[in-house]
Amino acid sequence: MKDIQSEKDYRNIPINQVGVKDISYPIVVMDRSNGNQHTIAQINMYVELPHDFRGTHMSRFIEILNIHRKGISTKMIPRILSDMKEQLDAERSFFEIRFPYFITKEAPVSKQRSKMEYIVTIYGDSAENSYCFEVKVPVISLCPCSREISEYGAHNQRSYVKIKIKTADIIWIEDLVEIAEKSASGEIYPLLKREDEKYITEKTYQNPMFVEDIVRCTAEKLQIDKRILFFEIESENIESIHNHSAYARIISR
Q1: What integer pLDDT is reported at residue 7 of this predicted model?
Q2: Is the pTM of this model over 0.85?
């Protein structure tokens, strides 16, 4: 059968990324406490297309996933990137995975244990000897200004801290989660009893944080980790008394 995709293209325009998006696939992730964790990922796979190639072979991306179907792990990303370059005759390949990751959290007073979900994204690029991964962590922020001017309390809200790092070494997802949680006014838990709610409310009140404070506290902790080559931090407060979100971002130099 005639292979249209392998025809030459004469427009002299290369394509930076071409491939497949939003593939749902089971993967295995390294887990600091349990060795590994099984989850379901959304996967994007791309290659760089030279100016004289009309198209790429989309089915080969899925074939590469199937080769590794017995256990796609984050440790195998360099191998998958290499397979993509070889099978698709490409100079550069890209692999992105987004997945839910669960950590068992213990309530501060009642000690009730339950699973907390965090969203993780890993970015692989065959042109680099490192990889990026990002963790989105829900936290609590309490407004210092509101506490200062109010007689009876202060407004607080759920916030999200995103930490994106580039590293050539293994850094546990749990490490970044802990950094984000310790940089906010308080932590969020999936299961709380009344005694836990009292503890968290009072602790959060004693630790007010602007969105600017959260990203700076996070940056202080990341700066001292020599394994981290680059970081980007975002914090967004889903404001409880305003019709907008407060936002801050720091990118390392």
Answers
A1: 65
A2: yes
